[in-house]
Specification:
134 residues; four-stranded antiparallel β-sheet
């Protein structure tokens, strides 16, 4: 994924890992240098954004509680959909607020784990289609 910087609006390639409700960004694929983390809470939202020049698969993750957002660009529509589905699952997932955010399944950029049930996939896909059409 590419991530847009907040102040200078520069796009930078980063490697991301979704672990439970924590999205961690790293400088390179070795995952040795952590660049930042975004804690997904029930108040977090994810939605697609209009194209930004040549970048067509743009989405934003927002947390209204702490007034923080990250803007990303996936390399293709399939990657965009996978990220949106996994992030929505993490937000609405089986994790309770009292549980440690570091527990749960990991999902690494471009290596999606299969969804556990067809119902979950179709429900999340429905939500994705509704959010991208509004």
């Amino acid at each position: 994924l590419e991530r847009r910087s907040k102040w200078f609006k520069i796009w930078t390639v980063r490697w991301f890992v979704l672990n439970g409700r924590v999205l961690s960004g790293y400088s390179d694929k070795t995952l040795a240098s952590l660049r930042g983390q975004f804690h997904l809470t029930p108040s977090t939202t994810v939605e697609t954004l209009p194209h930004e020049g040549a970048r067509q698969c743009v989405f934003i993750i927002k947390n209204a509680e702490i007034r923080r957002s990250w803007i990303f660009c996936a390399d293709c529509p399939t990657s965009l959909e996978s990220w949106m589905i996994h992030i929505i699952q993490a937000i609405k997932g089986p994790f309770k607020d009292s549980e440690n955010f570091e527990t749960g399944e990991k999902w690494v950029d471009h290596v999606p784990k299969p969804l556990k049930a067809k119902e979950i996939h179709s429900n999340v896909k429905e939500e994705f289609n509704q959010s991208s059409s509004s």
